[in-house]
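Today's session is about reading a structure prediction critically. Students often jump straight to the picture, but the first step is always the sequence itself: look for stretches that repeat, for charged clusters, for runs of hydrophobic residues. Only then move on to the predicted structure, which in these notes is written as discrete structure tokens rather than atom positions. Here is the chain we will use throughout the hour.
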Amino acid sequence: MATAGGSETCSHGSSLESSLLLPTKEPNWEAIPESESEKLCIDDMLDVYCGEFGSWQLRHFVLTSLAWALEAFHTMVMIFADQEPGWRCVEGPGSRCDEKAESVCGLEPGSWEWEGGPGSSTVAQWGLVCGEKYKVGLVQALFFAGCMIGAGVFGHLSDSSLGRKGSLKTVCILNAIFGCLTSIAPDYFTYLLLRFLTGFSTGGVGLCSFVLATEPVGPTKRGVAGMSTFYFFSTGIALLAGIAYIFPTWRALYVASSVPSVLFLFLVIPFISESPRWYLVRGKINKAMKIMQAIAKSNGNNLPEGIILALDDEANDASNDNQSSSKEAVSGSIVDVIRSPVTSIRLFLAVGISFTCSVVYYGLSLNVVNLETNIHLSVLLNAVAEMPAFTITAVLLDRFGRKPLAIGTQWFSAIFCLTGSVVGSVRMWEVIKMGCGVLGIFGMAGTYNLLFIYTAELFPTVVRNAALGSATQAAQMGAILAPFVVVLGGILPFLVFGICGLVGGMLAYCLPETLNKPLYDTMRGIEEGEADWRIT
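Below is the predicted structure for this chain, in token form.
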């Protein structure tokens, strides 16, 4: 009896010890028999079981969207680093300096000096004035050219091998390296090259951050969440104004604006999850389900056993009995977008709208920044002024839909731009023209905010970043063109901006509405889904 009892006790103790010491085996969702599972697409699982925007999504969204501030730092730093500082006459025997001169071009060398010294900006460092002034515009143009190339490259990589999180990590590493190297550029051409490389990596920051932040959000909350990302960009611009005030020399400013990328890599990236949608289309169901379980648990919900993720075309196809297909990676490229009759026209329209919107937004921004006021205060006020546009479009997004807002905001901007082209340039009319510019950029800031979420909803997961990358490339082409439009002077800039706004609104009229439609995963899914929507 004693032996039996002792043996029994030992057996129970061994069992208990095993349960404590041995790690719990994670479930293998891929091995669940199809007859015992219920397949759901991600949107349905978020809506029914996990929660569309709970504490998990809020934390993930905020952490991921901080990358937008990094993009603002690396993009807008040129406003301060490449500015033309003030100058003053140097008193000395035989000095013929005229302080009332409009520029230093006609003054004798040595009769004047830069306020703040030669290290205050790149213009003062390398004498980029008079006949060399075009080099400042060349730096800006090549930066945006780098952004255009980088958006396409990292758009493809984030859809394929690197994933959303891997691509975001890569561009932040490159930004930190190139930004710090820029601060020690020995000459103009090295500076030009490093700004191009910085643009290349910067082109993927907002793109990867936006998709990664919004893909785990449910369909009815995705619009407002997506449009809220731009608050981080405007906040980054406002913070940059303060950083530039603290670090008045251009070399110190480049270091100060690059350090946040390093902090983001070590303090934020480790707490960001990869997109479950990317895991799903790459055939990594277990990893996708693990994230969905974490979302449900963090939001206070429960994900029942037997529920498994599936691509939208598999979840909607009741006759599908090939379980192994859900375990195979599904990929796509921009070629697939062009080949599909559903997505090809969408890509053409999205690219056109992105181009015209960028010409207006950056063109009007340059006009406002060139006001003869304190540059730090001007940049701060411009950043703050964009935020009401973000709020209004976010509030109206789910009430009126994406399409009407895309048309309305562009035509709103176009009306005031065209008005600015016909008013005079004296006394009171100058104030009216400035007001037209502010209202024009107010409307186009709303379009910019809306355009990312609208474009993301127009394309399936397998090609979403590739399509967004193409639209971003078009926007960078518009950004490259904008300074040349501003140089035209007179009524032409406002006239060009007004025409671009009208054309962009007409292109948006041809796009389909995406409000309350599912976020498709595959090319087959969007083609079949859109066919069903047309039938109903």
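Discussion point for the tutorial: The longest strand covers residues 38-40.
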